[in-house]
């Protein structure tokens, strides 16, 4: 091997006259590289932003930054017919020269010298690209610069890339540039669908865009087109049959409007700058599905407009890929009167009851409930907050799955209280609810009934999580090079997600639309409805294995409508969408996650009276799902044993139990709130007999059933008018074995009363301690403040 020193020695022995040509060549190359580095040719062109569907078709196009219609034509859109026609007309030797054609240059120079004026420029396609990228005055100096730039362009780009760039920059008059722009705006189709006659038409226009004006001078354009078609035929470029068909084809080109579909979706993506350098924004939108959804929404709103309901929004997501496949922001974007330009998919609205599935799922995962656990749907005061059901009725003890399927409010608020608002808010933040994150400090128990702000997109994202074993991930609005989505955030366990889905699939529920009762058009989906306070928003979110569809119906003005409800307003549209898009889905249905090795969902026997594990006194049995190692396993206590006399008039405690003459009996072990509900509704229930009056034993609070003061509220402030003082009601809920309660005001006995009797006081301004004790010695204390107005 030669070292550097040996090469230097050899070079020193070369005669000077032989070194000079090599030095000149090396110097020239170095200078060319330096100039290329110092003055790079810039091919970045501001293309028109284009929203493309899943099949590549143009959904919406925008003007470029320089106010041009300059749509980027991809390689696949440049057909062989287009390529052959443009090369034959503009540069036959395009693939054989290095950017300049020396023979053509010499021929053009000779013609220009002989005629004394410029008659031919001999520009290759590469040189024309340079001229389009860097417009200059038509002088010999400009031509020289074009020659150098053409060589530079050929150095950095392939022939295919240069031809593509040329076709994307061709001028067609006015503000239209590029073959795709001309194809879409004059013929209403992409370049790959152009006929030979249309290709030839667009091939000849760039040389004479002022005189050959499509849509204005079509007859003149047709004559020039046919002249070139005959030349193509004479040269054998295309078959004689193809030429004959092209010659007979009429020219009906006219200036069309650019595609303007899906304006909400397109403007959103443009504002979020989701485009590629070519201006293309690739989406998973399916055009046929999108047009079908838009048609269904428009027809539905036309039907309900008589009820003063003017708008709707719909979002359809593929559950497997999390891609948005259809997006409707409003019933009519161009309806200014009804706020059509508001994007209902992103508008922050009250969710009504649509968040309850997440709450129940979290309760399943926390082990608080199983589907058949009993919850009391009775009037309850939560520190001054007294929720009611949609129908203003209460149902007493119900199962958890009944409470969710029927969207009962009091059980939901109780679960949120038990889980904790911060825990629920954290789960919502994890699921991507950005508005809730901003409101987190101000949210309370009312959030589960709609006292927070969400968007349709956020709700659909959450429900796609239910369809994907509890894993939530942001929806994919655009196609990205990353490919398939990641696993996502685990908001619920697969077991809890299945239990939610299994519950939401039930059809014996009040939010089934009236006209769908016993209908064979009912799709097999899991769904949840919601109606906001004041009937301003109607929601219905549903999913099956294939799709999740979210529907919002209402008025963007916020005007409430008496007829508006999630069940009868939004759900019919949801069912119609599923029947149109995925009727009899081939994907099957969700299966319980029991086949995996780490599966924790199983079945067990329970007592139907309480939903708990049965004990020896439970005569009936039922089967319920539970999550192993998570769900509670306490024994059923729906009955309690009492010792009574033979007649059942008196009960005894262990302290006063007689040595004989007693009988052991069982009575329902009802909680105070349920007893109060039965009393108010006059529902008979079996109560144990009163305790032995001769017993002097006092009981403590270990039983955990001390009276619950329901009025007034602990820590409340009451304002009274000294001239017209008003009374404050005292009320409590006592245990099943209580026959009398004692009210105390600042530790002084106020009066004795029945457990369900209302007691009234007329306090003066000041601080007060209120106490309620039952006849078992159990008591509860609260404090209130009374002030003068």
From TrEMBL:
Family indicated by similarity: In the N-terminal section; belongs to the glycosyltransferase 51 family. In the C-terminal section; belongs to the transpeptidase family.
Single GO BP term: phosphorus metabolic process
Pathway the protein acts in: Cell wall biogenesis; peptidoglycan biosynthesis
GO molecular function: carboxypeptidase activity; penicillin binding; peptidoglycan glycosyltransferase activity
Domain (PLD phosphodiesterase): residue spans on this chain: 306-337
Reactions performed catalytically: [GlcNAc-(1->4)-Mur2Ac(oyl-L-Ala-gamma-D-Glu-L-Lys-D-Ala-D-Ala)](n)-di-trans,octa-cis-undecaprenyl diphosphate + beta-D-GlcNAc-(1->4)-Mur2Ac(oyl-L-Ala-gamma-D-Glu-L-Lys-D-Ala-D-Ala)-di-trans,octa-cis-undecaprenyl diphosphate = [GlcNAc-(1->4)-Mur2Ac(oyl-L-Ala-gamma-D-Glu-L-Lys-D-Ala-D-Ala)](n+1)-di-trans,octa-cis-undecaprenyl diphosphate + di-trans,octa-cis-undecaprenyl diphosphate + H(+)
Name this protein carries in UniProt: peptidoglycan glycosyltransferase
The organism's place on the tree of life at top rank: Bacteria
Transmembrane segments: none
Pfam family, one: Transgly
PANTHER family: BINDING PROTEIN TRANSPEPTIDASE, PUTATIVE-RELATED, PENICILLIN-BINDING PROTEIN 1C
